[in-house]
Amino acid sequence: MISENNLLPLNNTEHFLKNFLKKFPVYQTKIINPLANEQNYIYLLHLLEAEWHKQLPDQTFFLTGSSGHLSEDFFIPENQNVCILKNLRYMPLLMHSHQFIEINYVLKSNHSLLIDAEKSTPLQDGDIILCPPNLQHTFQTQNKNSIIVDFILRVTTFDTVFFHLLNNNNYLSTLFSNVIYGDSNGYIIWHCQNDSALKELVLKVYEEWENNLKYCDKMIELLVMEFILILMRSHEDEAVFSTSYINNSDENFRSLLNYMQMHYQTVTLSKLALAFNYSERQIIRIFKKNTGKGFSELLTEIRMNKAIQLLKNKDIPINGIASMLGYSSTYYFNKVFLETFTFSPESFRKRIFQT
Q: Where is the HTH araC/xylS-type domain (predicted)?
């Protein structure tokens, strides 16, 4: 099996980018956000392309067809569901979002940063980041010893292949659902420095992708599934949500949330208070402290995340799903779902099964 040292040598694109930053040092630290200044973004792309054709005239420009919002097909080959990449070192700080789900594994950090719209987060060896669709972000990896491996997943593939792994009433399921399907505009990060099993899986996945052996696409899907399972089994308590669920170390909060996930059909604030011998005011205070949200908002999130799972079973009618979630009115369920996800339950079901 390959080792992390096999990933250290710079490829042609990284050599080009390193020379580009030497020639234009302002782009070593300048963050370019197309949403804030599209002209600066377009200018940098033109500058990169002009320098590329000077240095590598016989090669296609590596950002041809790119934009501030990357499509799945920009990276993922046709008829495949997953793509494995090595994050480009010395890339200028181009903020971008994408249509796909991205899981990043930090093999070697060497002062790498994850930059989003709010802050810059220092990364450590063994960190895992789940970047959902539409998250504005970039990585600063301007060090030859930095190695970050990217798993690029089609959203429909995550829906049909991977998301059933999260069909559990637990805290991590809520985090995944909220990041991928909600409007949180945040990401999840795990600090898994000492997990050799995850590291070995990442290297195995990368080797499968590079060697392109027979059935490698299916093998990669299975390995990524194993990766997610180990992450859930061994590191649930280490998941940190970048925006809403900032403080997930409060055991009282976790116990309350797990109870709500087990009894989402019938739970009320008064029943929850009675089950834990708290006052309703105490429960509201715990929720506000840990999430900034109230009981009703959290219950709606839990029910909507469960709705996403149930809608993938086309044999269950939508009015049946509404009833299973604890809604007495299908009309009200449709209304809440639309307000949460900006599309109706019927539209989501069509999106899942159209492929």
A: 254-351
Task: Give the model confidence (pLDDT) of 141-169 as tens digits.
Answer: 988 999 999 999 987 777 666 655 655 55
Cβ-Cβ contacts under 8 Å for 256 (sequence gap 6 or more)? 272, 276, 283, 286, 287
Q: Return the number of other C-beta atoms located less than 10 Å from residue 218's C-beta.
A: 13
Q: Give the global pTM.
A: 0.73
CATH number of domain containing 133: 2.60.120.280
Tokens of 197: 């099993």
Asked if the model's pLDDT at residue 190 lies above 60, the reply is yes
d(CA 187, CA 132): 7
Residue 100 has pLDDT above 50, yes or no: yes
Residue 264 structural domain? 251-353
Q: Give the per-residue pLDDT at 90.
A: 96
How many Å apart are CA 320 and CA 310, to the nearest integer?
10
- 237 and 255 fall within a common domain: no
Tokens of 66: 């790119």
Phi, psi angles (nearest 5°) of residue 122 = -65, 140
Q: Residue written as tokens 């250290």?
A: 8
